Amino acid sequence: MSILDEIVDRTRDEVRRRRRDVPEDTLRGLLRPHGEGRPFAEALASRDGVSVIAEHKRRAPSSSAPLREGAVLADVVSAYERAGATALSVLTDGPFFGGALDDLAAARAASRLPVLRKDFIVHPYQVVETAAAGADAMLLIVAALEDDELRRLYDDARALDLDVLVEVHDEPELERALEVVDADVIGINNRNLRDMTIDLQRTFDLLSAIPTGKVVVSESGISRREELEELERVGVDAVLVGSHLMKQPDIEAACRELTGVM
Q: What is the pTM of this model?
């Protein structure tokens, strides 16, 4: 069983528990009116150069040690905003990444930036949960979903005014993202979630197969301004950076180095 399979199985169990604890009707009572979100996709597409989606991530699945000892979420996301990040990614998976759903509301309160919920979304309940918790967008991982699941979750998210980052890491997954939901925002994960290897070349290999007009995000394995400049030259709109930033002694300075904001 790959790490992705293990995480998805655990997530399905967690969702069953949460549905018992907090019924979906209760969550729907917490939904904000349409139009009160912060446009995630629009923010990425409208910025000159490559946008940085800066991620709050407590730990990696491969280790129980925190990426940043004693980190306070509000301090982290505020530093990202000051450093010129265009949007925030907040990892909410608990068992493998140490995150929590409450982190979304905390990030929204501490920053004016659009907030992406990064998690393993496998059930429609989680879509409602995402919107109720204050996120502006959510992640759907094509490798974790069947076509009917992908379509249902995508449509449910758009109905709740959530933008969707549809993540792929190879050509078959990209074809599904385009054919099943005609995704507007496509994330190319340079990390293979089945063996956890990272190769930035994945973005360059898949980019030519993405139709004009899509917002393209390169994810994982990015740590230097030169890499952003190279990605900008080939037409990438944004990068998502998590572990690299969370590990730096001065998180704001590290984010400024990527964004070019001094």
A: 0.95
